[in-house]
Design brief:
- By secondary structure, the protein is mainly alpha-helical.
- The protein has one domain: Heme Oxygenase, Chain A (Up-down Bundle).
- The chain contains 13 helices and no strands.
- The longest helix has 33 residues.
- It starts with 18 loop residues before the first helix and ends in a 7-residue tail after the last helix.
- 40% of the residues are buried.
- Bound molecules: fe (ii) ion.
- The site of fe (ii) ion has 4 residues, from loops.
């Protein structure tokens, strides 16, 4: 049987992808939901997160934000022009999208500043112990994993779920209006850009991974990719957990109740 996959259906419909990819997405759905249901986002929306957790969130994710184009570059290094349709697709996409990431680190700092956290804190404060797992995982899989594994963990899984939580937070009028009008637009730029309103990046990444893997990858390869997706979601969840724990630990009681 011809293992070659070339998408013919719409980019953003799961049925356009091979059965194994549909099964993988379904298998990972509950883990993805655990990120979306994390209380961090709900509290951010309600402006009840408090200074400690907000700072730990902004500082804790920063190494990942700063390094994100680097993960893409590490994956780009694995491509070889002309080797396969998947390689060519990945190469073109990564080259183009690394450039898109150019200003996102600065926008993250703008978001933090708008939320009252100085630039120097983001740049120089040591992140809370236990929040480094997400960046470490992305670095590891982008360095040592296959091209498909690196892209599914970062550009598909993390970008996908980040698009969803960004939209969830950005949809909150209360949250948006918590920023000073003079800096509101610049503060919210990162969130707005990453909100999944019409973001096709995770779909494009899935399309590339399926082109690389074909219609019938070995069972072990599918299991590995599925684990990569889940590990990305879990890393994001653990980072959220750690920020929430810190929120209670600092004062010895729930900050919002004070
Ligand atoms: Fe970005």
């Amino acid at each position: 049987m011809n293992n070659h996959f070339e998408r013919t259906g719409p980019l953003t419909e799961l049925t356009s992808y091979p059965q194994w990819a549909q099964d993988m997405v379904a298998d990972c759905e509950s883990t993805k939901q655990s990120v979306m249901e994390h209380e961090l986002w709900a509290m951010m929306r309600e402006c009840t997160l408090g200074d400690v957790a907000t700072t730990n969130f902004m500082v804790g994710i920063w190494p990942f934000i700063e390094r994100f184009p680097g993960y893409m570059a590490l994956n780009l290094l694995k491509t070889q022009y002309g080797r396969s349709a998947g390689d060519d697709k990945a190469r073109r996409w990564l080259v183009r999208n690394i450039r898109v990431e150019q200003n996102h680190a600065e926008y993250w700092i703008n978001w933090a500043e708008g939320a009252g956290i100085p630039r120097s804190t983001i740049l120089h404060r040591k992140a809370l112990h236990g929040t480094g797992g997400l960046a470490a995982w992305c670095e590891e899989i982008s360095t040592h994993g296959t091209l498909a594994a690196g892209m599914i963990a970062t550009n598909y899984a993390i970008e996908g779920v980040t698009g969803d939580w960004s939209q969830f937070v950005h949809d909150s009028v209360k949250y948006r209006e918590s920023f000073e009008p003079s800096v509101r637009a610049s503060s919210l730029r990162w969130l707005h850009l990453h909100a999944a309103y019409d973001d096709v990046h995770p779909w494009e990444a899935l399309d590339i991974v399926c082109t690389l893997m074909g219609l019938e990858p070995a069972a072990g390869e599918i299991i590995h990719l599925t684990e990569c997706v889940k590990r990305s979601y879990k890393s994001m969840c653990m980072l959220g957990d750690r920020c929430m724990q810190s929120r209670q630990a600092v004062n010895g009681f729930d900050e919002a109740a004070a």
